[in-house]
Amino acid sequence: METRTLCLAALLCRDSSGYEIKKRLDEPPFCHFQDTGFGSIYPALTRLANEGLIEGTELAQEKRPDKRVFSLTESGRAHLIEALMQPPGPDRFRSDFLFCLFMSDLLPRAHVLSIVDQRIDALSQTLEAMKLCEANVTRRARRFVFDLGYSFYMNERNFLLANRHRLEAALEEVERETQVDGVERESANRHLLEANEGESRP
């Protein structure tokens, strides 16, 4: 989703400054959908204003510089709906956690299992936090998204709990193979050293 579309969606909630838009996009629910940065938000707001999709008003602040507050125009609302009507692109999933697991053959078993346990704890905390705000999600479409997200986190946590032993067993096997390889390499190096010493003797 383009940054400009996210800005329009944020302004659909209420009039906001660029900083307030960025803050809204960094908080639930928007933060679960896309990542945005100040470097992309302000150019997007400038383009949206030039196209008449939003309007900016200078708001005086006591003992502080004036701030520019943006509001959504009717054209901007129509443009947002038009953008949402386009087929959504494929999800782009990024995870440092999964990357560490993917490369876990290089890491100590205790460290990898600790990462998994921390992930389980973090997911449990997320689920508890979602439960606390569940009653506030009253609109049916948004409740559908809420339940889908809750199911996603719940399934991930349950999978890790049920399959942690598989990863532990795999890492134990890697450790055994590494130990065998180390012994074999040490033996080969010793034989090579003895052979070289034998050749060097007069």
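That was protein one. Protein two is written in the same sequence-then-structure order:
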Amino acid sequence: MTKKKITGRSIRKNRMYSVKDAARVVGVKPRTVNRWTRMGLRTRGRYQRSHIIAGSDLKEFLRTRHRANKVTLMPFQMLCMKCKKARRCKDDIADAAVKNKLVSPSVYHVLISAHCEKCGTKMYRRSSTDEILKWYNSGILDKRNKKRLLFQPNTIIKVQFAHFMEETDE
């Protein structure tokens, strides 16, 4: 079962919600909202045996919860969904598929795919042709890639990352 992404778009800041109403608006069960109150969601009192939650507090709680789960990636890293960590590509090699969709004039979307160095799971990362050229110019990509960096729509390019030593958290 996949996790549902919880957003606060339908929450009204100036409205007060009961646990049941907050759960309905966010799209979760009432016991999830009760668990959030134990985790730090601020309540404004009780009414008929239910917590009263301000919409602004609920929005802020979901925003900080989302920020806490974000992972910042270095250019040579991708997020491995199995390891749940930022990982390097296996052998520092990735495939960059140039899509036919323009970000801006002459800048295309690129989908980078590679295998995790630890578990071998396939990883993906979205980028653009501009970002890849910046990586090349700053030395993140191996200089042997120069001949391959001719970006044509609907093509796949093999990309070799330069080998960097970075700190590991294990």
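Confidence is low (pLDDT under 50) at residues 165-170. Keep this in mind for the problem set.
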